[in-house]
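Lab notebook, bench 4. We co-purified these components, and the gel suggests they stay together. Before we commit to crystallization screens, I want a quick structural picture of the whole thing.
Request: model the full complex, all chains together.
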Amino acid sequence: MIPAAFDYVAPTSVEDAVAALAQHGDEAKIIAGGQSLLPVLRMRLNAPEMVIDLGRIDTLRGVRDDGDAIVIGAMTPHSVVGSDPLVAQHAGLVAAAVEHLADAQVRHRGTFGGALAHADPAGDLGAPARALGAEFAIAGSGGTRTVSADDFFVDLFETAIGEDEILTEVRIPKHTGWGSHYEKFVRVAHQWPIVAVAASVRMEGGTIAEARVGLTNMGSTPLRARQVEDALAGQPATPDGVRAAAELAADGTEPPSDLNGDAGYRRHLARVLTRRAVLAAAGADGA
Amino acid sequence: MTAVQEPAVGADREIGRERRRKEDARLITGRTRWTDNIVLPGMLHLAMVRSPFAHASIVSIDTSEAEEAPNVVAVLTGADLGEAQGACINAWAITEDQVTPPHLPMPSDRVAFAGEIVAVVVARSAAEARDAAELVDVEYDELPAALDLKEAAADTVLAHPDLGTNKSAFWKFDSAEAGTGGDVDEAIAAARTDGVVIEREYRQQRLIPAFMEPRSVVVDPTGEQHTIWSATQVPHILRFAIAATTGVPESKIRVIAPDVGGGFGGKLQQTPEEMIAFAVGRRLGKPVKYTETRSESLLAAHHGRDQWQKLTLSAEKDGTVTGFKVELLADLGAYVAIVGGGVPVLGAFMFNAIYKFPAYQFNCQTVLTNKTWTDAYRGAGRPEATYAVERMMSELAAELGMDPLELREKNWIKHEEFPFTTVAGLEYDTGNYEAATAKAKELFGYDELRAEQARRRESGDPVQLGIGVSTFTEMCGLAPSRVLGQLNYGAGGWEHASVRMLATGKVEVVTGASAHGQGHETAFSQIVADRLGVPFDDVEGLHGDTQIAHKGLDTYGSRSLVVGGEALVKAVDKVIEKARPIAAHLLEASVDDLEFADGRFSVRGTDSGVAITEIATAVFAAHDYPEGVEPSLDSEATYDPVNFNYPHGTHLCAMEVDTETGAVRMRKYACVDDIGTIINPLIVSGQVHGGLVQGIAQALWEEAVYDDAGTLVSGSFVDYLLPTAADTISFDVDHTSSPSITNTLGTKGVGEAGTIASTPAVINAVVDALRHLGVDDVRMPATPSRVYAAIQGASAGGATDGAAMPHFDPAEPGRSSTEGAGA
Amino acid sequence: MARITLKVDGSTVSDDVEPRMLLVQYLREKLGKTGTVIGCDTSNCGACTVHLDGTSVKSCNVLAVQADGREVTTIEGLADTVDDELHPVQEAFRECRGLQCGFCTPGMIMQSVDLLKDNPDPSEEEIRLGLEGNLCRCTGYHNIVKAVQQAAGQSGAAGRHRAGATTAGAPAEEVAE
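Here is the predicted assembly.
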């Protein structure tokens, strides 16, 4: 319950944070909202010598309109993202996923960028980020670079963020007018999802014109189910219209087996939940 | 001086009134005294070094680096403490030849479960103690571990090699041998030719009590008595056990259970942590504190349940039951806990439940393994029994195509048949199963839900509805001391109470029961207010300190009210009788002309009277009282019950099952419990709600899971799943009342009823939803994955295995990984 | 050691703390605010919930240094205990028996206050979801949900105003009966 001792610094600018990282190298850990890091430290599963707190960098907080995208600052708390009108209007899938992420207290403290950088494949934000084609701005001593969602998630708890870099903001292309749903399957409410499916659809009449589908906890990273997206295009938003596409949801996935179900069960869930998520996103009955 | 007493009659009677709890004022404002809140001058902090291995020899323990760490005062091992550490006792050898491994708080040669303590670090702060604990270097030689209960029962690997066997004790009850019924094997044989035989094997998974307040202990060795504050249910038993095993005189030990944050049986223990803290405090002569983390609590506080149940039920073709045979394997874990071996025996008399089985046999083999030791968890033996019989009765109903309630009614004891001596030899005093069931069906909307179930089946709805029934009874109020003696239990079952009449008119009642959330202070005040005729607010309940409540057997087994409450009634009656001659003296009347009502003695046929509180003041001054009478009203009483009492109830549960995913959702839960006279309906409903959710949680969510190495996989609240508000529903709770005739107040126990009844109701509902798909069992907890597997025809859902998925990246998988927040 | 200065339950406090000290440990060990308790080590149980700058957080999941310059309200600062006043949510918990052992209660009450601040008239489902970060082992949640409903009805917007605003001076029992 008591972390090992560490030094602490709370820089007030991205430049200072990057400099601190460069100085302390792999003995440092960054703390954003700390909702995943602090339990790790408390249980002494990790013992950094230096903790660099991004909480005093005001420029990393907030949501802004950036033309064909919205930009969410990495240190924006989940509760702010979840109630932000820009997010609701242009990235409804993110709003849907944030709504039931962890619990209220964690949403007050945990941050959008922190959760993505933590890269837990069972985290709720990776699948929407991948589905919507988010881009990640990463600052280092050489300046800022941008990484696509497809390249950002590398492996279990591992991202494209380099040793001396920090995630500063996430750019999400506008999906204005798209229907969205995040279908999360848990045994108890405070659990990480066993499987979850993030779906956004653009409807033309009763037909799905375009779809975006992301999968949570179906592999070592959040996944995008492009085969499902392709198969959905042009289908009617009915259970029968969606079923065949949803059957492809687990193709090529390597989900984990654990207390809550084995890989085969997770693949089955992915198919069922994909059908439900897409139908709910389309506002159809039978979801 | 209190001149006029408020009346306590009729509608103003305290018993039955929804009094708000006295305890709550401090609890809702944070003015609480949890053990971990206690800070003493010079207090040192302990951190435990625990074995990561399920079974290993301790080759060496190098404490030198830890001793050099900042502000470390001492690092001690079992060898250092020697005999001063005492021993953890087993108070209930269920058979004379029970195999009981010695249980030292801190062994020095061999560990028998993962989590066992091998060294203790003492430092000036808890943080420094923890830091230094990481520096203790223990070399282990790993030994093969006995983990699987059935394999352990076959002695394939020995949990304690020196003992030569894992089999601790075999306990049997046979109705033919006892003369309480017929021969069960004959009944089963007969049913095989011209009746029905139902054979099933059920798993009672291992559970963790998971009280919300982690255990904590503070030991102050300064002063004449050693004072121990502990988050315990059993301060009196703890004091006895420490004295008995350390040689410190009992009179030199004071144990205080301050505010205690839940127990559910989980704090009914004499723990290694308490013993180590006591030994370290004495050795160093300084106050010490140890507070466990949640992970330590889940790992090393005792677990519950963990049985295999092999069941054979025989019946005639019309549904009349003829016999029930029970064969249990019960996992004790690494040691025989304080009442560990006895827990399944507490269920031995309950498998026949409310039914008129003519023949019954119970067999139980307790088994040692290299897992955390098991002991009482809410219900202790009776939930297991109730689960078995209520599942079997529903299976029989399904086999015969009968409504499960009709089948039960055909076999249960009718209300006019009480008192009824059961095939297990118990005499049930009162009950009315017909009334409770009728009320429950109405509350539940039984017929409407059955109709909906039929519609959903008809239409092939992917969400199917199931209705589960549980008509439970339990024996509670542990317990008549003679009965406990016959069962070879190491203590009695009496309870003690005293009443102190203060000079200012206030009343202190002292009970040997030790509350930890139940509301004793309130309920006992209500009892005293009525009987003594004093205002509710003038009564103060005291408990949980062996210097104040010097005598007691603490709180467990739904005994506080039915045993402790009765002791209190008897103490109050003594106060009144002691006051009577003094009243006569003060009123200048004859004792025979006095009557006592509403807190006053009055002279029959006159206006002349005196309040009992005035008499208390008078004897305090002691200026004017009769010769030959002591100037005190204070009284005490010890009550030993003559019988258990037998609350019962009908619980009805509707579950929706998503056949596409296996997800289950509770739709409705209604229960009607008969717990006799109700002292405080508000307290009772709270006990029922909480009990229900613990029982439901066994059915749906909770399981302590070990991996193949004997590591507890569900070792945090991330993986040991307690339900939240979002996972549960509001319940429909009502009561019928057949007052118990085994105590003055007519009360029956209520603390465990919900937990005992609800588990089979839930599983019966899940199975009922899927029966038409060929499902006749889903193993607990009924996870979506198991339910789905059952639908797919894969037997009973299979075992739980595999590791929990890490969400807090344990290793160092690249520094970007804990890049900050997340969920 | 780092110097921190913050406001806790209305009073300004200043201390040297180790960076590793959690906010909950600071409250309990340095300030003696033992009304806030620790129930787990994975931030599941919510027993340590306090308000940080007006919103609920789990104080086991915040470093004391992170609270520097901020304002913390604990269960002990929710109402004016000197006058035995209660916050409407505290009153409702007592009235509805939304507690038994009381260990989860401080966190449960602090989260309920936060919930009602955001949503003064919540449905049962919204209450249940709003409390998903707080574990209780005694009550089965039934009466906790009732207490939040009662607090919502009792005080309209049972927000963050100080105690006694609605039933000042009246002990809960009299109100009840």
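Chain B has 22 helices and 28 strands. Worth comparing against the SEC data before the next meeting. Confidence is low (pLDDT under 50) at residues 1-10, 796-802, 810-823 of chain B.
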